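ugh ok fine here u go
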Amino acid sequence: MMKPLDIIRKKRAEAINRIIGKGYLSTKRVYVGMATCEIAAGSKEVMEVFKEAINKGLTDVYLSQKGCAGRCNLEPTVEVIEEGKIPVKYGKVNEAKAREIIERHLKGGEVIEEWVIK
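structure:
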């Protein structure tokens, strides 16, 4: 039988592993707009590109979805937030642009100015 302190230690270790596993401590955060109108504009496919990159080894990135930004003419949108930097919001992101954002911005550190929503 486990001692109460051992049970607490085990639960704490499991919680820490969950936090790390979900990417909550990552220095980069990517939010894909997933409101109904953004899904209609193709954001599900964009989200899949980011999920696939993470599954294939893209590290230090927390991926999540966000609600309506009220910018229907610029959808799908992707926001990249990096520790210590100004957040960047990209507009009219399709699957090809999502791959470029992964390579150039997330991996290479380059903000793709021509796609940024000002």
